[in-house]
């Protein structure tokens, strides 16, 4: 045969080998692409369907959003606090209301509590929100973290600084009191603390006692002077938060919790630490600047002495027996001896919303806020507002001159009532 024919066969054979090689490379590329697609599909599925179930509350992790700190009076010389007592939040729309009018019941749920909180924040425009316990009602939720996120949702959405303490019902679900406070402290815009930091003034005054302090949610927040004033870098108002516990057994009888001796020692030492600092700096500033800053205290369960106010002059309504502990741990005596505490704000008794004076210190109930907590049909849920005002000097804002309070009702007009001056 001609040589050209054999040359053609060689070319064809070579061409076939090249084609097979290219096909092999193509198949390898397709396999790699399919493998990569399979891996990405698995990763996506894990992220969207599985990973979120491994996290508390079924929510993905994210960095905490923090408020502008430190807490301070605004340029108008005021600092307004919204007290929210006893939200008793459950799971949301499926959690029914208690003690409302029959005409309201079919359409009432936790969403009414959420709506009230949104309205009051928008109306009063507070500088700070204080939640004073029983934020969630443990027996009504199978996921404490999820309920906390929903209950505090409006506060986080407002981007205002807020703080919370625990009541006697918060831990009755899926988290311990320590876990609850830790979780709350990590929520957006929360300035809550599980317990005092080791570098608190207590460690200077009486040694490091913070490791042995009872409860979870004992801490102090300092409120600084107005921006641009000569008190802008000084604390002019102190906010103390205390864990009053949940339930205890005393001599075989079940009773409510109480504030323990270790907590009172810490509280007293922090107060004395501030007073010592003011005395040390007295020669550097005028007397009005160095005056001991007033303090407000927040806890959930009222102390036994509040029962005495039933037969005394009060502002507001005393409609139920004070549900306090059978133990008297000396809270009132400690607060009196401190000298800086002007008012105490509690919750727990939902149909009590009065303020009364004991030994020069005002004790005020918040009144029931949440619709899943017990109340009184026809008696609107309510919130308490606390306003601290600075003294106006010749050139700048001075220290706190006046502290007052009032309530807002969850009615059509957010009615305001019982305004009362607590200190001036």
UniProtKB/TrEMBL annotation:
CDD domains: MPP_Dcr2. Its cofactor is Zn(2+). InterPro entries: Calcineurin-like_PHP, Metallo-depent_PP-like, PAP14/16/28/29. Pfam families: Metallophos. One of its GO terms (cellular component) is cytoplasm. It is found in: Secreted. GO terms for molecular function: hydrolase activity, acting on ester bonds; metal ion binding. Residues 79-351 form the Calcineurin-like phosphoesterase domain. Its main location: secreted. Coiled coil: none annotated. Keywords: Glycoprotein, Iron, Metal-binding, Secreted, Signal, Zinc. Belongs to the metallophosphoesterase superfamily. Purple acid phosphatase family. Homodimer. This is Calcineurin-like phosphoesterase domain-containing protein. The lineage of its organism: Eukaryota, Viridiplantae, Streptophyta, Embryophyta, Tracheophyta.
């Amino acid at each position: 045969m001609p040589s050209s024919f054999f040359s053609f066969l060689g070319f064809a054979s070579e061409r076939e080998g090249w084609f097979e090689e290219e096909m092999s490379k193509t198949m390898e590329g397709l396999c790699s692409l399919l493998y990569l697609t399979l891996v990405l599909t698995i990763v996506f599925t894990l992220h969207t369907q599985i990973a979120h179930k491994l996290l508390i509350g079924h929510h993905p992790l994210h960095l905490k959003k923090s408020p502008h700190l430190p807490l301070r009076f605004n340029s108008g010389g005021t600092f307004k606090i919204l007290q929210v007592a006893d939200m008793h939040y459950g799971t949301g729309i499926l959690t029914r209301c208690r003690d409302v009018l029959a005409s309201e019941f079919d359409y009432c749920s936790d969403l009414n509590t959420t709506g009230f909180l949104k309205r009051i924040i928008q109306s009063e425009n507070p500088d700070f929100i204080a939640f004073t316990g029983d934020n969630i009602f443990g027996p009504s939720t199978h996921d404490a973290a999820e309920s906390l996120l929903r209950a505090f949702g409006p506060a986080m959405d407002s981007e205002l600084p807020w703080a919370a303490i625990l009541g006697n019902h918060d831990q009755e679900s899926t988290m311990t009191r320590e876990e609850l406070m830790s979780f709350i402290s990590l929520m957006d815009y929360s300035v809550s603390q599980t317990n005092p930091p080791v570098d608190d003034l207590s460690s200077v005054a009486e040694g490091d006692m913070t490791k042995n302090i009872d409860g979870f949610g004992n801490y102090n927040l300092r409120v600084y002077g107005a921006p641009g004033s000569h008190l802008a870098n000084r604390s002019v108002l102190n906010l103390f938060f205390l864990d009053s516990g949940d339930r205890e057994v005393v001599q075989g009888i079940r009773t409510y919790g109480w504030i323990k001796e270790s907590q009172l020692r810490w509280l007293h030492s922090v107060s004395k630490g501030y007073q010592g600092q003011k005395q040390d700096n007295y020669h550097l500033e005028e007397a009005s600047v160095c005056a001991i800053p007033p303090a407000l205290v927040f806890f959930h369960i009222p102390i036994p002495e509040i029962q005495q106010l039933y037969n005394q002059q009060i502002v507001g309504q005393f409609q139920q027996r004070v549900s306090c502990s059978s133990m008297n741990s000396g809270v009132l005596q400690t607060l009196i001896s401190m000298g800086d505490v002007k008012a105490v704000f509690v919750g727990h008794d939902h149909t009590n919303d009065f303020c009364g004076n004991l030994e020069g210190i005002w004790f005020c109930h918040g009144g029931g806020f949440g619709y899943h907590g017990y109340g009184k049909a026809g008696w609107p849920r309510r919130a308490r507002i606390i306003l601290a005002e600075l003294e106006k000097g010749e050139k700048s804002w001075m220290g706190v001159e006046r502290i007052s309070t009032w309530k807002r009702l969850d009615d059509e007009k957010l009615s305001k009532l019982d305004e009362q001056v607590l200190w001036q």
